[in-house]
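A favour, since you know our structure tokens better than I do. Would you make up a two-line entry for one protein for me to read? Write everything out right here, beneath this request.
=====
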Amino acid sequence: MPPYNGGIFLPTPLQTTHLIKATILKKILLTALAIAGIATAQAQISIGPIAGGHLAKYSNRINGINYAEASRSTANWRLGVAANVPISNHWALQPSATYATMYIVSPKAAPKNTRVDPNALEVPVCLAYKFTPGHNTLMLSAGPTVAYHVKTYETGPGYGTSSAGKTYPVLTRFNIGVNATLGYEWQDGWFLRGYYQRVLTSMYSDAIYETYATPAHAPILTNFNFGITAGYFFKLRSGKKQTEAGKQE
């Protein structure tokens, strides 16, 4: 529970950090949606399936020391939908929604080589630059990502300093990260992308941090992954063309 001061509950430094990052991400997403709303009125929007695989690596730091260095990278897969919303001749907004597996494997020295798989629904919103629009083209993109963990792994006595009979989540539901992509798009709709993604906020829940008397000694669990995805864009009818077609009718 946050500290109590004169009838007001004050957020902990960790909660304040989460709040600031969430506020920044909210503004970025709202800006992206506003741009997409304006662009969709005139642009030729494309949407289609996307699938691929990635390798994930985790960092579990306590006092600056990474206790997950001995853990191995794990192979994962993802499946979802992606969109392309042109903003100008070279620039486009490329949001996507994918379901991704996220296996967390502890160091081999840990008991029973512990593994959990929270999995997540990830929604990156990237700004892309296409070098030769209208032709087969190389593209670069980057932007924020928000992830929703399907599982949080409830635990109870025996972990941290929880009270007997009580349970609490080990992982947080939401995480914020960044995404960078290098890819190639063909005129017929196919595309291939290589990407790097990193989580910026700790994946541990606030309940975990509340078990530590000194927040500075609490662990910080983050991850990064890189992989390859492929997909196909189906072009949708633009808002401008629909309006002109309506007038002709």
Observations:
- The chain has three helices and 16 strands.
